[in-house]
Amino acid sequence: MGVVLEDLQDTIRNKEFLKKVVPVEEAVTWIQDGMVLGVSGFALFGEPKFFLQKLAERGKQENFKVDLYTGASMGPSADGAMVESDLIGFRLPYQANPILRKQINKGKVTYIDQHLSQTSESLRQDIIGPIDYAVIEATAITEDGLLIPSGSIGNSPIFIEQAKNIIIEVNLNLPKEYEGIHDIYIPELQGERNPIPMKHPSDRFGEKGIRIDLDKVRGIIISNENDSPSPLFEPNEITQEIANNLLSFLDEEIELGRLTEELAPIQSGVGSVANAVLSGMKHSRFKNIVIASEVIQDGVFDLIEAGVVKFAYATAFSLSEKRVASLKSDLAKHQDKIMLRPQEISNHPEVIRRLGIISFNTAIEIDIYGNVNSTHINGTHIMNGIGGSGDFARNAKISIFVTPSTAKDGKISTIVPFVSHIDHTNHDVDIIVTEYGYVDMRGLAPREIAEQLIENCMHPIYREQARRYFEEAKQVSGGNTPHILHKAHAWHLHFQKHGTMLLDE
Amino acid sequence: MGVVLEDLQDTIRNKEFLKKVVPVEEAVTWIQDGMVLGVSGFALFGEPKFFLQKLAERGKQENFKVDLYTGASMGPSADGAMVESDLIGFRLPYQANPILRKQINKGKVTYIDQHLSQTSESLRQDIIGPIDYAVIEATAITEDGLLIPSGSIGNSPIFIEQAKNIIIEVNLNLPKEYEGIHDIYIPELQGERNPIPMKHPSDRFGEKGIRIDLDKVRGIIISNENDSPSPLFEPNEITQEIANNLLSFLDEEIELGRLTEELAPIQSGVGSVANAVLSGMKHSRFKNIVIASEVIQDGVFDLIEAGVVKFAYATAFSLSEKRVASLKSDLAKHQDKIMLRPQEISNHPEVIRRLGIISFNTAIEIDIYGNVNSTHINGTHIMNGIGGSGDFARNAKISIFVTPSTAKDGKISTIVPFVSHIDHTNHDVDIIVTEYGYVDMRGLAPREIAEQLIENCMHPIYREQARRYFEEAKQVSGGNTPHILHKAHAWHLHFQKHGTMLLDE
């Protein structure tokens, strides 16, 4: 590496920690078959890249597997190199990797798909773990031994608290300006737990870094890796239309006096619709917006610079190449407007409910009564996982789900009589938006929801067959949510057999 | 009534309120067709019995309907007399009345089945309402104008806060000892909301009654009604076995060091299993138990008297005839051990998560991957509603669902390949208990859950056909949750056609 200890003193500012520096080649040998690793990282930011790559290299030579606990999906080292080396036998709480997904769907990797706020509780309750090694990327170690995380916090605080051993990857190549944007608060054990002392999103109630028990630090390795950029999610015509409809809904809420132009704290997923929504806010009447989300993406920085967003917190950055390049100066400029928190806090039911967050998330399919599938294809094959969508949808002031009305060039209707899998029941869904419009389900009974979803959100080519199903179900079965069980999945089955959900084709 | 104002001074202790007393016959005429009523009551306790009966009598003569908002299901006046007079056009957030259920399932009554913690938020957000009249039963009005509720609090505080007009039914026949057991706390609007200041279940942080805006009080009526007792739910052999299995699970958790003999605050539903569990606790190693639930039933008083329960709070009583008869002296004896709170607090995600509650609720059916249906028969006909089960299951430290393994003399297996309706996804279910055993789903992947549910919880006569489905699904479809969509509801369809889910009969 060519790094000598003297060079590190500005970054590892505590002498006792400095003594712990070891070569990465040594540290990776500590990992044994069957061990549980709690690894920093949430989406693409914050994984201990160098360590995981070296571990993956070792995995190509040796036959061993580990249980991998993370914040969410990971960058190219965990959800790339490690997967390719077939190192993962057990994974939680979320993943988004095509190879790993295949292994999970074959039943070869045990995968626990969890609400992202709950992994920390499972660890405290000894349901999962114990963690043999926490492996955590750091920007710096302070004089008094606080670990300054990098571009995500995720589950790092609880991994560090619960792990038997800690390996710190100090990355010399990260913006030093990460220091100061973190707010680390760890709830006490249930039974002796205090209220989370957040009243307003910008309240700072934690520490600037993660407190570390020096005795548990087995080694510190030094790296020089870059943050991993995310792809650009440019809107297309359909996602732009969805975003427009969503913005119209928010506008309508202002007209009705139920929201002000400051809206309420916004949680948004990542992707083309989310970007189009954020982009649309730039030229809207909305002002002094607060973001209280899982990730801070490009659009949030754009809105801060446009003076539309006044404050944003999340548990991780998710930035394109352009914003990764400017991150150092962006952080310097906006340090008082940006904060990262543990995912246990960003996704905590207590916080989401108290703040009254407006959340929007993406659905894979939705049934005519407003139940949402956000994870499984055909009821069997998992895509990613429920992630934080349940934490937010259940507790949000307004829970919005977006989806294009069709998939596979119109061969699949995303609105179906009966979803093949449910992640969010209609109790937790307020607004559904497609490119055709939106339905405000609040205060509607299931039959009213069905009528409106069919007429306002469904693609027109599917409406007639949906009306037929709904009418027949009312006639034949009746009930609060009329269904004809033997036809409930007929659209899915027709697609499996004929390549389209259009029943007449 | 034969009551003169002088007699009332001990009960209505504020002179300004005393001036508002009117005959019930006058008050019921204020209710117009299409009005929204927010009525006190949760389960059988606390409804304004006299007013509702008189309103129902008027409803027999006149043709009008109202929107009825309540705490949960109601006693014989609302969910009896009013239903029989066909007075209800719209109902939320929960009901359990056979006639009303029929009207809902015919699509004749609009019914919004809500998480019980969320009605208050919907009102604050102007999604439902506005409430024309809050009609609230009271034990007393204090000198400084606090309304002392009776045997439930439910949604009364938010109804009173949000209503345009208030009618108070002062019931002279209730135990005066109700006064002092209530703790009324109303969260602020989202955005300016403080943490709910409860750290321990017995913390008192509210007022002893509900603050009333005198100007909104249109009238006070005087009644002399009795509290309504609930049926006795005696355990049978099967529910006793379920309770034993549940108690074994708790015992095992103590052995594993994950719980102490004080367990964690307990939420339990009502019914035969719940009573058997409470009864079983009397002779267990458990001690210093805290109840933090929706309802306080007979068994809780028994456990207080046995020295096993040290404190209990809920939003309502649900008591048999025997305990209704002794309530006056029970309250006097145990006033420091019993507390009623608004349902927004008892069911609040913030509180449930912070305290780390152990919840147990009843399922109608459960699929092999642990998804729970607790509301709909055959996917179409609603029984009661989700009630508070979602508030507790999502946020509990340990979320337990109980069900006998079969229904209808074995013709229905309550564990099926694919539930016909989902209220609780397997993310929110930890333990499933039947009379055959329990499965601890925590840390298990879906396929592992299926194997264990089939072998440990399912009735033996259904196991072979379940194994066949599961094996075929793994072979033919694969995936994280293997299913064969065209056979997913075959058991339900077989029952519809042949009167049994046993496929070979």
From TrEMBL, chains A, B:
The keyword Metal-binding does not apply. Residues 332-467 form the Acetyl-CoA hydrolase/transferase C-terminal domain. The active site is at E294 (5-glutamyl coenzyme a thioester intermediate). GO terms for molecular function: acetate CoA-transferase activity; acetyl-CoA hydrolase activity. One of its GO terms (biological process) is acetyl-CoA metabolic process. It comes from the Bacteria. Keywords: Transferase. CoA binds at G269, V270, G271, S272, V273, I364, N384, G388, K408. Residues 13-205 form the Acetyl-CoA hydrolase/transferase N-terminal domain. Pfam families: AcetylCoA_hyd_C, AcetylCoA_hydro. InterPro entries: AcetylCoA_hyd_C, AcetylCoA_hyd_C_sf, ActCoA_hydro, ActCoA_hydro_N, NagB/RpiA_transferase-like, Succinate_CoA_transferase. The keyword Plastid does not apply. Belongs to the acetyl-CoA hydrolase/transferase family. This is Succinate CoA transferase. It comes from Cerasibacillus terrae. The lineage of its organism: Bacteria, Bacillati, Bacillota, Bacilli, Bacillales.
